[in-house]
Amino acid sequence: QSALTQPASVSGSPGQSITISCTGTSSDVGSYNFVSWYQQNPGKAPKLLIYEVTKRPSGVSNRFSGSKSGNTASLTISGLQAEDEADYYCSSYAGSSTYVLFGGGTKLTVL
Amino acid sequence: EVQLVQSAAEVKKPGESLKISCKGSGYSFTSYWIGWVRQMPGKGLEWMGIIYPGDSDIRYSPSFQGQVTISVDKSITTAYLQWSSLTASDTAMYYCARKFNNNWYFDYWGQGTLVTVSS
């Protein structure tokens, strides 16, 4: 099974909104609502941002939101802030043989 | 407070064996799966496998099956990741993380253990 497909990089100015896509297949993203998103700052462990496609853990800003359509999930960050500059990874359950796939990661640059 | 504390960085030679650890605290260790995630230098995250400390049930990613061994010692609330014969391609940061029950995401992560394999 291949990794989920994310754009290598996205950028935006402070205050703008950006969306990061995560494309899988009908065997993973398209079949399960177990899509999650993680933020990773340089030299740090990943941090959970979104789970079950749209849910935010306690403490995560409501500027982060998730959605899914067909085989593609998306993470939207609104009101972009300098502190949002980081790498973002999606993941999805992919069935009882493969278990979980991650996306290749997207580097967000805040201009 | 949930904490996962990993062992220190390791420098090994090709062919050597290695076992790194992840100690959980602040929650019921035997009630949550613990997983391992690899991140090679400058690359993305890769899901390696998970273990349930309650009964040592293990699930490996097909990509890592046979390449590593995941184990646990619930008496000391510690999970392990081990290699019998390292190669240079095992050079990476390895994270342990707690998998939320009845779901497939990791809610708490360790700080990572850097493994460097070089002759």
C-alpha end-to-end distance of chain A: 35 Å
- Biggest β-sheet of chain A: count, sense, barrel? 6 strands, mixed
Oligomer: heterodimer
- Poorly predicted runs of 5 or more residues of chain B: none
Key traits:
heterodimer, A: six-stranded mixed β-sheet, 9 strands, B: 119 residues, mainly beta, seven-stranded mixed β-sheet, four-stranded antiparallel β-sheet
Tell me what the structure shows.
- The complex is a heterodimer of chains A (111) and B (119).
- Chain A is built from no helices and nine strands.
- Chain A is 0% helix and 43% strand.
- In chain A, strands 1, 3, 4, 7, 8 and 9 form a six-stranded mixed beta sheet that branches. Chain A has a three-stranded antiparallel beta sheet with strand order 2-6-5, with no helix packed on it.
- Chain A is an all-beta fold.
- Chain B is mainly beta.
- Chain B has no helices and eleven strands.
- In chain B, the strands form two sheets. In chain B, strands 2, 4, 5, 6, 9, 10 and 11 form a seven-stranded mixed beta sheet that branches. Chain B has a four-stranded antiparallel beta sheet with strand order 1-3-8-7, with no helix packed on it.
- In chain B, β4 and β5 (45-52) form a beta hairpin.
- The interface between A and B is medium-sized, with 27 and 22 residues.
Quick recap:
Chain A is mainly β. Chain A is built from no helices and nine strands.
Write the layout of secondary structure elements.
The complex is a heterodimer of chains A (111) and B (119).
Chain A: E1 9-12, E2 18-23, E3 35-40, E4 47-50, E5 64-69, E6 72-77, E7 86-93, E8 100-102, E9 106-110
Parallel strand pairs in A: 1-9
Antiparallel strand pairs in A: 2-6, 3-4, 3-7, 5-6, 7-8, 7-9
Chain B: E1 3-6, E2 10-12, E3 18-25, E4 33-39, E5 45-52, E6 57-60, E7 69-73, E8 78-83, E9 92-99, E10 106-109, E11 113-117
Parallel strand pairs in B: 2-11
Antiparallel strand pairs in B: 1-3, 3-8, 4-5, 4-9, 5-6, 7-8, 9-10, 9-11
